[in-house]
Amino acid sequence: MRASLPIAFLLSTTLTACAAFKAEIPPSKHISQSGPLKVHPGLLGKPVPAELQPGSSLPATNPAPLATSPTPEAPIKMDPVGLRTQRSVYFDLNSAAIKADYDPALRAHANYLAEHPKARVRIEGNADERGSAAYNHQLGLKRAENVRATLASHGARKKQISIKTLGASNPKKTGHDEESWAENRRSDVVYERED
Known about the structure:
Elements: H1 4-24, H2 64-68, E1 88-90, H3 103-115, E2 120-126, H4 133-153, E3 161-167, H5 178-184, E4 186-193
Parallel strand pairs: 2-3
Antiparallel strand pairs: 1-4, 2-4
Helix pairs in contact: 3-4
């Protein structure tokens, strides 16, 4: 019985140290993954992109990453009226919730519509290829409805905004990986008539 006391003490000390160490590590955004296994390029001896390097962040003034791959995490680039550079709203997996990052762009579109009563937009809701056709159709519809509601709450007239769901039928990027799926989980603001 006495021999188990040092082992219990050692185990207790180790668990306490592990718990304290774990609290210092920030939680990962990428806990699970579906599809084929993805390996960090550094483990394969390849150069590691800046966005994957720990502790690094891309400067907000660098337009190159925005032009090549607009993602939900990328900062939104706005032109003076905020209309032509940001016409897509990106969503998380299985979500139709609009992130606060997209509010400035949607507010700019709503302001334009409020100031130009003859202008008309169509909101096209999209989903990635995962899920059934019926589910993706409904998810695309809900995304388009949420964008329309946000525009209306910022002053656009409801009659200026139509919605359409495309489900997974209109991919922006045709891959079978997270990068492609993230690009396809979106709603697009399509101007049918500018005033």
